[in-house]
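user: Here is a favour to ask of a fellow structure person. I have my own habits and do not want them to colour yours. Could you put it straight underneath, so I can go through it closely?

assistant:
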Amino acid sequence: MILDSEQVKRLYQRIAPIYDLMAIPLEWLGACRHRVQAVHLLKLQAGGIVADLGCGTGLNLPLLHEAVGPGGRIICVDLSPDMLSRARRRAKRRGIRNVEWIQADLATYRLPPAIDGALATFSLEMVPEYDVIISRVAASLSNNGRLAVYGLKHPERWPDWLVQLGVWITSPFGVSREYETFRPYAAVFEHLSKVEYREFLFGTAYLCVGKRIPEQDHDTHR
């Protein structure tokens, strides 16, 4: 079953109090390390503007704050008010004050123009409008601005029984087999110039990074 925005919102409202506990196995399996790599590949500078798309409880916040510094700007967007509330608490504990909090559906939200980077971790795999979202993000990036997407994917070479087991394990997050054809990484490379693509965990997770081509060079890269 593909969940609509309201169903996703209700799901994450319900699991918000235990989300960080639920995410521990993923963090143990390397998610923390891959978050670090994703932020590093954004090539952010002190004073820059970065968006965290589907920020959840704010697990990316310390990394993004370290990258742009207190003089930068972090835009945190999430569908769930309760997830945002927990992200705010994390920011307060860490003394991170340069955050703009946006409670919105990524399918309709529009970023401000000329941002330096955007990050989406485990947030686009269950959004049918992922291609539209990525297109809008690409248009909002400054020249050479980057988008990094890190998440789960369908492991093409796995036997069906093992795929079904993986779906069962991740079902508390709303995962189902109906999302198998969703490929946000392909949309990144359709709308942006490819910088990086890596797969992890035997093809069940990926990190991809795309860069906006400067306007004066756009024709030569088509």
